[in-house]
Fold:
Amino acid sequence: MLRAFRDTSADVPRRYQPLEISASIFDTIHEAPLALFHSDTPAIECQANGKFAAMVAVDRSDAKITVRRIQLLACTVHADWRRT
Structure:
């Protein structure tokens, strides 16, 4: 994933960070209570090192899986550069 930072929403990004999201955060999905999966749109919390790492949302209406609120603790920042 590439994160881009800007001073205001109208500005061109001036700072960038390429991130690698560790797939191991999804290992905790199998520990989620079965009751979470009974709804049509379950949201499953994933953890890394005992802390919240991301939220996985399943939308059965269109067979879509969305990963939300990914925390930096679950990622490796490979670089940090600024545009001049």
Remarks:
- The two ends are 22 Å apart (CA to CA).
- The first strand starts at residue 2 and ends at 5.
- DSSP finds no helices and seven strands in the chain.
- Residues 2-82 form one domain.
